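Next comes the chain:
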Amino acid sequence: MIGGMGTYLPEPTGPSPVGSTSVHLTDASRPDPWAAGVNARELMVSLWYPAVPSDGPRARYMTPAESELQLTSRGITGVTPDALSTVRTNAAADVRPAGSARGLPLVVLSPGFTNPRGTLTGLAEDLASHGYVVAGIDHTYESFGTAFPDGRVTTCRAREGPRGRGFWEKVVAGRAADVGFVLDELTGAHPAWPGAGLIDPSRTAMAGHSAGGAAAIAAMLADSRIRAGIDMDGATAAPIPDHGLSRPFLFLGKRSNYTPGGEGAVTTWERDWELLTGWKRWLLVAGAVHASFTDLALLADQTGLDIGAALPGTRSLTITRAYVRAFFDQHLRGTPQALLDQPSPRYPEVTFCSPRG
């Protein structure tokens, strides 16, 4: 199939039209962790939000330069280099947000290592359609490609250095700092986005995939503003102090790697589970692979790339959207969700895990 032709994200499930915009932020208070001699940390952040209805152009999934770096860096040759820039999204570009002052909860999304923020668009659009402001962060030099408004495109410098002890701790600590800075920029006295007045700063949470999921724990430990967190398929790195972390947390992972005591199991979740002292769930998805918790499984299906998932990409996105939104509805909106209390016949692929502790 000719790459990019006909690739699209499923429509969001909520009642609100969705808008999206990108903002370029500079944190002058700290040097870049990956670029020697760069004395400020620059970030690209996408915002998705409930919007006024618009038949204007859709937001771009990513730029052609970002697409080419993502595909060539992964050795994917069966599609055109710009294939990921032509994915059809559901959000209208740069339209006016809708909502009342301080009326909308805020969710920060952090992608996997080497992934750009765009790979969580299917989840972000869905949350926005249900009345959330969503901020997706590109962690500069940790993605294969990040395009800035002046035409610069940064690459994945973080992969170039040695991966010694402490590498993943450095990644999640840097991401925690990125998240705290983005919260400052969206909820502070001089916000970086004109729609920021719609955000309720007292209702903020975070979800991430892979390294971004691991970073959710690091960010919560560093920043008490983050009221709840989700780790999607990410082996955790930041040590939780002995007194524990008492805010709500959800582990959502593939059954093949995150079954406690299973062969090839990632053991960090078991270590952390003991120290999560508040509301917590550990949910496993049968047939999922690592990419199943992002748009990439869905886009691979649409372009005929086999990534080894037993679960179709549309189905894994449906599951991810349902459980992530239920978690945020319960913990940011105070709306109890039966979906989080017991297995559901609607989602037989999802099993509840109850490790000791």
